[in-house]
Write a structure and sequence with these properties.
mainly beta; 220 residues; 1 helix; two-stranded antiparallel sheet
């Protein structure tokens, strides 16, 4: 997973960079494309046998259209994108992915995670402090596109290592809401975000309220 994640991230970044100047010239700065790498820290309440590791890497990409604020260099942006979150469990796995309430069981695992993919609609206020520095504040609504779980480990107590995958997990919220902030220099920015809506429906699974921190690149 880590190797595939790095390869995909690199390919997307190279694609952005290759087309950045062409799109910038054609749109006269009215369009922004970005790519984010981040880690999620869950701030939700504890759930039985659901303990996450410290680093839960994810990534996202987006395209926004920028509306000027009067005659200033500040802008209001509206766009669309996608984000992908991975929640890695420590010595536990999702044993009943299609039950009404999610059941996690302890096990000796090499890797165990839940993956969620969203279609995002972000809105952002961008303030250019000086020519090369920008501070942004925004919010987004995210629509669930897909979900899956995967575990590699000794999960059935028979002494064998198993690899178990499941798709379309039960009990997830179809829409979640988040807020974020960025501070950037040239094409690079550091950002933080917080998801206000639990990823799971009430009493159907763990409380996943991720606080995200990462680095972003905006080639144009």
């Amino acid at each position: 997973m880590k190797k595939s994640f790095l390869i995909l991230s690199t390919l997307m970044l190279l694609s952005f960079a290759a087309n950045a100047q062409l799109i910038k010239d054609r749109t006269n700065g009215k369009v922004t494309m970005g790519f984010d790498l981040f880690t999620d820290i869950n701030t939700g309440d504890k759930y039985e046998n659901f303990n996450l590791r410290s680093i839960n890497q994810g990534f996202g990409t987006y395209l926004t259209y920028n509306f000027p604020m009067g005659e200033s260099k500040h802008t209001v942006s509206l766009g669309a994108g996608a984000s992908f979150h991975n929640y890695y469990m420590k010595k536990a796995w999702l044993a009943e992915p299609y039950a009404y309430a999610m059941t996690f069981e302890q096990a000796e695992t090499k890797r165990s995670k839940i993956a969620l993919a969203y279609f995002d609609i972000p809105m952002e206020l961008n303030f250019r402090i000086v020519d090369k520095f920008k501070i942004s504040f925004g919010a987004k609504v995210s629509f669930l596109m897909g979900s899956s779980s995967k575990v590699i480990g000794y999960v059935y107590g028979d002494g064998h290592k198993w690899e178990v995958k499941n798709n379309s997990l039960n009990g997830l919220e179809s829409i979640v809401y988040s807020a974020f902030a960025r501070i950037g220099y040239r094409a690079v920015n550091i950002f933080v975000g917080y998801q206000f809506t639990n990823s799971f429906k009430k009493d159907r699974g763990p409380e996943i309220l991720p606080f995200s921190i990462g680095i972003g690149i905006r080639p144009f």
